[in-house]
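not sure who needs this but someone in the group chat was asking about Ras-related protein Rab-36 from Drosophila willistoni so here u go. i didnt clean anything up, its just raw.
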Amino acid sequence: MPHRLRVPAPPPSMKLQDLRTHLRHLPLAYSPEQSPLSREKDFHAQLRYQLEMPRKPKLRPCKVIFVGDCSVGKTAIVNRFCYDKFQSNYKATIGVDFELENFNILGHNFSLEMWDTAGQERFKCIAGAYYRNANVIVVTYDMSKRDSLDSAKKWLASALNYNTSTRPLIFLVGTKSDLLTKEEFMRMERLAITVANDIQAEYWSLSARSGFKVTEFFQRLAGLAFETAVRQHLETLKNFAQTEQLAAHQTSEKSQTFDLRNYFKSRLYRQKSGCAC
């Protein structure tokens, strides 16, 4: 009777890696030749080198806000990625919904705080309070409704009014691509890419129902946000080191000036002392 090889089951404490949230390379853009953001095919070599240093950077969670008209599918794409589920009868978001997703990028933990804001005008003043300090703005529109694309610039301008110190990463995302025919899809994409170029955003077409490009989009978003956060962290460390070096140099100059004066004073005292004898 042949012996069967038994593979031991992993212990309960062992967790398998989630391929959706473990990134070792920078994901490509939806249309790399038209992206105003990074067109590199991978993380920069200098960035990888810095991340391998013994002192690991501690990064804050990345704040991502989703803006757009009501019922364009903001909640649907977030739930598709976070929970891999889709419901056709989502209720309109009241105020703001919040989701947290953890990534492991090049061996470093990185979190996305996803703020799903309401698209109704009566909740705009409430949602606006959550626009501040955004690292990423996702402007969402319904590919089956042209007027929701026309509103994209208005939503972006409103969000940027609360983020004037630094410009966040901007994405223009078309949802419900599964509702269009091939001809309608191509026509709407051409219009949307024109808008994306005007607002300097990276364009994506998604479908929460089928899951089309949803995972790829969030991986791309997390990869670019991580790269930006690391670069800003390194720049802060560089500026701090330069400030410390300048302060040390100024202290050294003051110390040398003080010692020099004491030196001449001591010489003068000795000369007067010699003459008195």
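also The helical segments are 45-51, 74-83, 124-128, 146-150, 152-160, 182-199, 214-276. if thats useful
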